[in-house]
Specification:
- The protein is an all-alpha fold.
- It has one domain: Orthogonal Bundle (Cyclin A, domain 1), CATH 1.10.472.20.
- 62% of the residues lie in helices and 0% in strands.
- The protein contains five helices and no strands.
- The protein has helices at 18-30, 40-48, 51-57, 60-74, 80-96.
- The longest helix has 17 residues, at 80-96.
- The chain is globular.
- The relative contact order is 0.11.
Length: 98
Amino acid sequence: MGGLPAGTIEQSEHDFALWEKRVDAIMRLVSDDKRRLMTVDELRRGIEELGPGAYDDYNYYERWISSITNVLIEKGVLGVDELGRRMQDVRARLEGAP
């Protein structure tokens, strides 16, 4: 959080996990000139609204996807029920995977 003491910043490059790449792609899609569902300012606001507990516990892309989700729900683009159903579908697929 701005103005608070923090640890060192890891500046080395790393490979991105597939889910991190997907979060980045989702942000690009919802904020592109065609869809304009979300702005970078809304992403930032959503991250700031996570609160210190979540902000400290989540990594960079977890903050992004949490913010994206909350903003899309707030705008009525995505419903909580729909999100819950999709999460159950994904969980079922993962549990059934070899």
